Amino acid sequence: MAPTLLRPCVRAAASTTTSNTFLNTTRRTLSTSSSLLYKQQRVPGSSLKIPSVTGPALEIPPYPFGPNQVYHQSNTGLYGGQRIRFGNNVSKQNEIKTRRNWRPNVHHKRLWSVSLRTFVRTRLTTRVLRTIDKVGGLDAYLLGIKPARVRELGPWGWRLRWRVMQTPIIRKQFAEQRAALGLPPKAEGEDVVLAGEMADQKLMEETSRMLANEEEFTIGEESDFAAEDAEVAAQQQQAKTATPEVPVEEFMRDEGPRKEV
């Protein structure tokens, strides 16, 4: 009996080759932006790096307005408060409306920072780019003091603002401004705390201590309430004497008798 020759299955061999090729290929990541777009250059003469866009930065104060909850992409760039707008396309013949949207005109740029002496990679809109050209550079845009400017910076602009403020050039500029206003020089590591914030902080600490010790809260003395009631009564009496009431009979006499028609 002649030996049986085994013929290989061409379809199985082809499927095995395809599966091995698929496993060996590099799969595309879920990120839509390349990591090189946010890779910042080192600041010459300083060990403090430019902060990351979304990485942890415990030394930076939190952004007072918080991240944008509507257009999350604006948290990683200089968008100037812009976000996606929605509307309709209306045909001229039948006036049929079709929903559409308008996205911000976003670009990836390298902007020169005078204080950092290096380029800063960022994603920004053309509106912010025109504003930067108008005010005179990236540093002037980031160091704006108006609340509207701080709000449009976003979390990423807030981090860049903090990093620019740590440079010797900006620190010297702030020291000259304090001297021009007659203020004492700021000590190293001193934080600016408003009087109202300090009072609120002390009140919260005192309240927490009393709650922990289960102490009773004293709102005020009885004498204080009595003095307050007497003051209110005096004000009411003074208002009555200032505007005396006119009797009804006096008012009717001034009008005279009515004439019947």
UniProtKB/TrEMBL annotation:
One of its GO terms (cellular component) is mitochondrial large ribosomal subunit. HAMAP family: Ribosomal_bL28. It comes from Podospora didyma. Residues 229-261 are annotated as: Disordered. This is Large ribosomal subunit protein bL28m. Residues 250-261 have a biased composition (Basic and acidic residues). The keyword Ribosomal protein applies. The keyword Cytoplasm does not apply. Component of the mitochondrial ribosome (mitoribosome), a dedicated translation machinery responsible for the synthesis of mitochondrial genome-encoded proteins, including at least some of the essential transmembrane subunits of the mitochondrial respiratory chain. The mitoribosomes are attached to the mitochondrial inner membrane and translation products are cotranslationally integrated into the membrane. One of its GO terms (molecular function) is structural constituent of ribosome. Keywords: Ribonucleoprotein, Ribosomal protein. Belongs to the bacterial ribosomal protein bL28 family. Pfam families: Ribosomal_L28 (PF00830).
